[in-house]
Amino acid sequence: MRAIAKAQPNIALIKYWGKRDPIRNLPAVGSISVTLSDLFTEMDVEIDETLKDDLLVVNGQDGNAMLARVSSCLDNVAGQDRPSARVTSNSNFPIAAGLASSASAFAALVVAADAAFGESLSGGQLASLAGRSSGSAARSLLGGFVELENHRDDIAVNSLLAADDWPLKVVIAITASGPKAVSSGEAMEVSRKTSPFYDRWVEQQASDLTEARAAVSDRELSKLALIAEHNCLKMHSVMWGSRPPMIYWNSATIACMQSIRDLQSRGVGVFFTIDAGPQVKAICEAEHEPTVRQALVATAGVVDVMVSGLGAGAKLVTA
Ligand code: PMV
User: Fold this and answer.
1) Which of 81, 82, 104, 251 is deepest in the core (most CB within 10 A)?
2) How far, in Å, is the centroid of ligand 1 from the Cα of 185?
């Protein structure tokens, strides 16, 4: 009747941008990500037959803005005739700011709801249901390097490499706090409908995935850096070419990219990636993490820097 699950956000190295089925929230492209270890969301789902409607508290505040998405996720797990639930979400990092908080939230939610409602769904079913709420959430069900495969009828996630097999670090430069103006879900629909670059983006994804898969399997950071930065900048070019344009960067975002270019020119094993927000994620070899952190802390406009290792997938904390 009550279960708590914990999940970490993931950062895409080969990005998901665009839906092929907006109703079922099926992505137009596959993607590859790393699951983090140090940032997390904990979801507590408690069935309460006395409640008329679901209740949601997010980080101690009324969660009404997210309630419809959470309730529909619970319906997907337990059916529409399920009893109501009291849902409490707590994250140890800023939410709705391009740090993939919806990924950790919905991955934790499907795992907690599955246990609380006694559904015993398979890992594949949980991935499919998490993906309906947030395309990237399915990837947080697994740890380390994860590929989301885009099959004809549904998605599937699989593990490419465990976190311990290539323990990279992710240094996150926060360049602005607070929620973003346009959600990624809305923005990718604008891109699909209006960006002249969208079709080419979708067409090229299979070859980007192949290149990244090989780099992960060989554990070659310089190879992964080339394809991940290329894929990230292509996704942002699709956004910039949309009408209206979707520009998530600020001047500090660009300053961080320049800092990372400087580090690369000095032989530091690091590369950047940026999602639907102004924050910059620097992926690096563990030995270079202090140098990368120092460089980003010293970059103009950076308000905070967080560091994470790679970690495990979503799991139940209590049941
Ligand atoms: O899962 P959503 O709907 O928040 O979309 C995520 C989109 C990106 O973060 C920009 C890319 C990705 O693959 O995570």
Assistant:
1) 104
2) 8
Helix ranges (H only) for the chain are 64-78, 101-116, 123-133, 184-194, 198-218, 221-240, 251-265, 289-297
- Structure confidence at residue 97 (pLDDT): 61
Ligand 1 pocket mutation pick from 184, 236, 239, 240 by most atoms within 8 angstroms of CB: 184
**Ligand 1 close to Cβ of residue 31 (< 6 A):** yes
Q: Rounded to whole angstroms, how far apart are CA atoms 100 and 275?
A: 8
Q: Kindly give the number of the ligand 1 atom that is closest to the alpha carbon of 134.
A: 1
What distance in Å separates the CA atoms of residue 34 and residue 13, rounded to the nearest whole number? 7
Three-class SS of residue 128? helix
Contact criterion met (CB below 8 Å) for 259 and 293: no
Tokens of 147: 């590929």
Structure confidence by residue, pLDDT tens digits, 25-45: 999 999 999 999 999 999 999
Amino acid at 77: V
Asked which of 1-5, 45-49, 95-99, 117-121 is least confident by mean pLDDT, the reply is 95-99
